[in-house]
Amino acid sequence: MCDPITLGITTLVSSVGMGIYSGQQQAAQASASMRQANMNAQAQVSMQNQQQAQQVAQQRAQMQMQQQQAQMQMQQSMQQNFQNQMMQQQQQAAQLKLQQGLAYDQQRLNLQQTQKSQRLQQEQAAEGRNLQIQQMNNALQDRYTQQREAVRQERDQLMLQNQTDRRIYQDSVENSEAQQLANAEAANRVYMAEQSQLSEKRKEAAFQAQTILAKSIGAKGSILATGRTGQSVGLLALDTERQAGRETAAQEAMLKADYDSALIAMDDAFRKNQEGNRQADAKVGFNPEMPYLPSMPEVPNFVGFEIPK
Questions:
Q1: Distance from C-alpha of 85 to C-alpha of 79, rounded to nearest angstrom
Q2: Which side of the chain, N or C, has fewer Cβ within a 10 Å radius?
Q3: Is the pLDDT of residue 64 over 60?
Q4: From CA 252, how far away is CA 227, in angstroms rounded?
Q5: DSSP letters of the chain?
Q6: Is 225 exposed, middle or buried (0-12, 13-18, 19+ CB in 10 A)?
Q7: 116-154 residue pLDDT tens
Q8: What is the mean predicted confidence (pLDDT) over 89-116?
Q9: pLDDT tens, 230-239?
Q10: What is residue 247's predicted lDDT score, i.e. its pLDDT?
Q11: Which residues 6+ apart lie within 8 Å of 179 measured at CB?
């Protein structure tokens, strides 16, 4: 069983809770009513604003149409005035252009006549100067031609003289070579003759030496064949050898003299050969070099013609 106090407290709490819930519901309903009223008020204000905006837009559109009509009327008026002014200006410009054209044609005609007269005078003056220039250039050309011809003739003469000198030099060289060859041949003939004679003398000396030797041997044999004895036999044999020695020495001396004579003759032939070569060389002149040729004259600087502008 429940306690009465506890039951009373529970009942009290329940009552308070119900009261609070009822108050909350009323507050919620009041808040919803207020929100609805605010929404209705806002909707009315929005509608009013839209109506005012439409009115303002209609007023603006009417004002714009009026302004456009006024601008169109103004533009038409300005365009008409501009066209009138343009027509007047065009007419004035055409008249002015016609007047300027006539004046320009007259000035151009006068200028052409003046220029023609001046050009004629310039051409006449230029023709006179060109004639003088032509005469001057012709004189320069003639002088250049004469100088060139004189230099060419001088160069030809120098080259011809050089060719002659070279030919003379070549002839002298050939003559000198021929003379030296003849000198060499003459010296060789002397050498060969002396050597041949010396060879003959040597052969004769050899034969003579053999004869002396045979004579000496025969003399010794004759002495020994006598049958002599003693010192006298030795002296006789020694005398025979001395005699053979003297004859051999005399033969050698004669051969030496012949040899010296051959050398002297060959030396003399050599000296004559050298002297003949020197004389032949002395007859050869200097080898001519390429002559110095004078330079051709430079082409003159011709004066240019004047071309009138």
A1: 10
A2: N
A3: yes
A4: 34
A5: ---HHHHHHHHHHHHHHHHHHHHHHHHHHHHHHHHHHHHHHHHHHHHHHHHHHHHHHHHHHHHHHHHHHHHHHHHHHHHHHHHHHHHHHHHHHHHHHHHHHHHHHHHHHHHHHHHHHHHHHHHHHHHHHHHHHHHHHHHHHHHHHHHHHHHHHHHHHHHHHHHHHHHHHHHHHHHHHHHHHHHHHHHHHHHHHHHHHHHHHHHHHHHHHHHHHHHHHHHHHHHHHTT--SHHHHHHHHHHHHHHHHHHHHHHHHHHHHHHHHHHHHHHHHHHHHHHHHHHHHT----PPPPPPPPPPPPP-PPPPP---
A6: exposed
A7: 888 888 888 888 888 888 888 888 888 889 998 999 999
A8: 84
A9: 555 455 555 5
A10: 67
A11: 276, 277, 279, 280
Q: Which residue is it, tokens 């009026």? A: 66
pLDDT value of residue 202: 76
Residue 133 has a pLDDT of: 83
Query: Which of 17-26, 154-163, 286-295 is the least confident region?
Result: 17-26
- Entry pTM: 0.39
Angstrom CA distances, 28 to 31, 54, 57, 130, 135, stand at 5, 39, 43, 128, 135
Which residues have CB under 8 Å from 251's CB, separation 6+? Answer: 205, 208, 209, 212
Phi-psi group of 177: left, alpha or beta (phi > 0 → left; psi -120 to 50 → alpha; rest → beta): alpha
pLDDT at 304 > cutoff 60: yes
